[in-house]
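Anyone have tokens for Citrate synthase? Sequence:
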Amino acid sequence: MVLGEKPLKNALKDSESKLRTGITKVEPNKLITRGYSQEDLISKLSYSEMVYLLLKGEIPSKKVAKMFNHVLVSFCDHGVTPPSTQTARLVASSGSPLNVALSGGLLSFGKNHAGAIEKSMELFQSSIENSEDIEDNEINKIASFIVENSLNNKKKIPGFGHRYHNEDPRRTAILKLAFKEELIGTHIKLALAIENLLMEKKNVKMNIDGANAAILSDMGFAPQDGTGIFIIGRLPGLIAHINEEVNEEAEFRKFCDIDDIFYHGNKNRILD
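Reply: yep, here.
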């Protein structure tokens, strides 16, 4: 064996134990992200373009970059109504630092809160396999099947309807921008076809999750990316609420009083 040469087995073991990444290369005084110098990225890319590059591996076109930025902004906040915001504020009220309160908010995202984006993307993408070849009449047939199946099984279609809005104002704004940028693909067409049928039958419109799910699907994002992109958009809102809670509200604030709590368990049990 040549001096300094390792046995093949040990060499393979060392190779397998090393952390692999295709995202950012770190060298002394040098950072390369997705093949680009971070010095160039800092001076030439917007935040939304950088996020897109990290997630997709390529810099988006100007039109797609603008639309992706609109999507991130549309996710930014929905007041104190969501469980994530209330959780973040409650944790902050206990005296926990920002990162802990923020973690509490993030942990509140699940199938019932923020999960509709991924479900909508799964529905749109699984319903249209060859999106480049499909015609509008076929999209309408698919939409009809989805709506009829939903009504027959008494199940909601993810991305449609809202607890607070008859017409989600964010949905209206984001779709207007998609039309303005001429970025209406097959998934947006499917979402609009579903909405038209739901409006006829149940007076239900698409919400921001459904609109953005269609837009992100047309951009080529996978369903599992949906929740992550929502989180990226919502983080500033959560931080703003945490800061407001800490700076403007009393410590250890009660979100409900004892008079608001109804006990319905056993009463007057006696231990023998």
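Residues 223-248 form the longest helix (26 residues).
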